[in-house]
Amino acid sequence: MHKKTTYWALSAFVSLLLLACSEQSKQASAKHEALVTVKSDNLYEQQAKEKIQTLEGLMSEANSKNIDVTREETVIWFAKEFLKFANWDESNRESVAYMFEQYAPYKADKDKMADELPDFERQKVIEILDGGIQELTSVLSGEIQRRPVNKVDWQNIVVGDNMLLSNGRPIFLYDYFSKSVGRPLTDTAVYNDHLGAIFHGGENLYPVDHDRAINSFLLKEDGSFDAELMSEVTDISNENVGFLIYWNMGIPEWVEKREPEVRKGRSLFTGYDIDNPLVRDVWGKIAQKTGELTKGKKVTQLGYILANEPHWFSETDHWTKGFDEMQAISSYTLNKFRQWLDKTYNSNIADLNKNWSATFSSFDHVEIQIPIDKSTRGTPIWYDWARFNMFRSTDWFSYLQGELQKGNPGADTHIKIMPDMYSENNRSHGIDAESFVELTTMIGNDAKTRESRRLNTNKPEKWESHYAYFWEEMSMSYDFMESVGPNKIHINSESHFLSASWWRKLDTSVDYVDSVYWLATLQGMDASMAWFWARDPDGSPEDRLEGTLNFFDPALAGSFAGSVNQQPHIANAYTQVMYDLNSFSEEVIALRQQRRPLRLFHSETSAINKPYHMSEQFSMYEKLFFEGFPVGFATENIIKKQDNTLWDAILVYRTEFVTESELKALQSYLDNGGTVIVDSALSLSKNEYGQVHKFALSQAKGKLIVLDGKSAIEKIRDLALEQVAAGRPDIVLTEDNGSEHKGCTWRVVKNPNGSYLVSILNIGKDKANLKLSLKNGKSVSLTNMLTGQPMAAEFELKSKGVTLLEVNAL
């Protein structure tokens, strides 16, 4: 073909193509305009907009009367945001269906759920607007009175001795842990009073390399630091309170080349051997340098998180096997274990051989198969490995913290402990919760609760028979950690109260959110970062969740579906309950400082050896949880290190195995006049290796009560309560919920003016008929502090109900 002909043919083709594109653009534009029209005509959206106008009119009236409307401002903000989100979800139905598909329990219904989600969100927006209108109407009429919100001054937080302060008042901080990754930290559409405004130094946790987290890639092989990566840590805005996190997933190639064993003994979120000397050298330098460069910055006010959910499960057939966790140990770990055994057995290899039924010629020749066979639990080899695994993890964090504090001597630290490492029965994980709390300057965790059973089981869970939600893990671990570190700031840096890997409920109840945040805060929580906020301001998912969802940790891919990001009523409820808690922050602090007169003895020795020790301990803890005071714990270290007058008695329940030093600690308590109640002669009878102790407790100057082992758990509880009667509150609460199982947990403190402050949470599954009186038999008058309304001494509290009362004697 002639060149000129070719040119004109090509030109004609291009013209036709441009015309076609123009027509497509017009059609797309018309389709978009039609979609917008449909959306603007949506009945639910129109209703919501009308209710927004109604609420805004009431707010204007309230402002004219100097009535605080912070709560309503948040209602309006979430309403407008979620109307926008609903439209995005409607316009991007296939993307929404794909995200539902990534969560296994929702996979089969992904299309139905994607279709229903936009109007579900709009209806929930209407619900929160109706609630806001009703409440503000009641405030304007004088029916109820409420305190103004004690707003957080995010730029001026003071870290006190045992509380956080804002403008001189106690404050409880709230936010979302992983928060719209990819948005700048100064984006006020994401960082504000409605969503919280804690600056996160490392919230993009799943990419291996970086993104504002302190990680292994900061250090180069030549000993210099990567300036670009370091700037992502050091250039974080210094405006708001925040935290930094050590992200331990990756290890540089140059380290792996020099240390071929470096991946042996890895765990899910710690991708290397913590006993490797080069790893320790790399992390020591990184910790010291980053501590030096971030010293004094506001982003470290809530501390340095030394690890994300550490654990080293080292038993056969554990679910972590799929992540190559502890499928072998390095020569460094083995030699460290040998040295630990040498010291533990006082260099007597014969004793070890007897315990292990082995024939090692020396400690240098000791061998062990890891993962260890779970059938060995209760034997000396299991105990020695489990205890060593805890020792080496504590040693690792001691080293990290020490190096950090060389660069930043005042650095606050905590470790994001998974509380079920304490509350559940497994003990092959290497986590000693007591040692971690003692080590760090703050208490750290990522406790979870749930309103319904796990979605990976069809079997009813035990708690469902009596309670409105699963509270065991959070409450038991919080009371334990607060007993170990009673004056430490308590940070839940990834709270799983709203959703978790195997739990979520698209229509979670507002009452549940209200109850669980009251409970957690009363039990010590100073700051909470909920999991998780992943909406960009236009309604689309954050950067990580766009496109194909394929992550090392598959839980992230399914995290968006059914989360708070699709529940306007829950997002609003979270902020509203924190407003209420902060309005009564002084009262909450007073209530959680109530004395713990009775201590339940905890022994890791029994927890390691027994298959169901923690379940047995919870059964007693549960019986004490509803008696009007916070449950306390005692351990060998607590007895040795803390003022023993902080409690009146120690209860030992089904604790067969204790070390000699644990037994001696209890004896010293008795020697000094303490009271110890032991459920049976079997408790405290054996050492860590199952050998009978050479001595037993004697009463000495104290009071020793050893029961015959035949008493029902209720009888043991009642006997223990008798021993601490003088330390129990003056208020008496009588509960009738139609069963023999109590559901109301309550606390009492006496005010300086002689009145009493009483908090009651009904975590039972049924409503409770309650009656308050004084221990001396006198009647009382009640005022509901949340509404300012007087109440009768006999009243009803709904399931998941929360009340805060001022009680006066008549």
Automatic annotation (TrEMBL):
This protein's UniProt keywords: Hydrolase, Signal
Coiled-coil regions listed: none
Top-level division of the source organism's lineage: Bacteria
Signal peptide annotation: 1-20
UniProt cross-references to SUPFAM superfamilies, sorted A to Z: (Trans)glycosidases
Molecular functions (GO terms): hydrolase activity
Name of the protein described by the UniProt record: Glycoside hydrolase family 42
Organism of provenance: Paraglaciecola hydrolytica
